[in-house]
Amino acid sequence: MRTAVDIQNYLPHRAPMLMVDLILDVNASFVETVFLIKEDNIFVANNTFIEAGLIENTAQTCSSIVGKKYFFADDGSENENVNVIGFISAIKNLKIHSLPNVGQSIVTRANLVSKFEGDDYTLCTMSCESLVEDKILLECEINLFIQKTISTVL
Q1: CA-based, 20 to 30 A from 6: which of 31, 37, 78, 89?
Q2: Which InterPro entries match (predicted)?
Q3: Cβ–Cβ under 8 Å, residues 10 and 23
Q4: Could you give the 3-state DSSP secondary structure of residue 154?
């Protein structure tokens, strides 16, 4: 069953760095997202969504599988005041076939290849593709590192 979920429930990203609108489908090993490219997006140049935007969209899509571990408890309730950091540790076999334009919606799919979980961190490898309609824009494999951080109040 496919139910659209706000990506902000799974990631710490906020505008202007939020490059995914909704999670269309997610489970422990697969995620599919959608993102509408708007004219004011920071990764738009000459009416085209540039390569860095495609990569960031893909990374955020992948992060949503791992991010839900930190933002939701096992019983499905939301964890409050959670802070995480994450970064791409490697991109392998990156192929950018085409760049989308303003007004187009990207569908990005990622499959979990491997995952290692520590107490407060996760390392994972994801196989990814981004499409507009049936046209492949990007294919790659991404390694991500995500870590829960301790917030300090001064």
Answers
A1: 89
A2: ApeP-like_dehydratase, HotDog_dom_sf
A3: yes
A4: coil
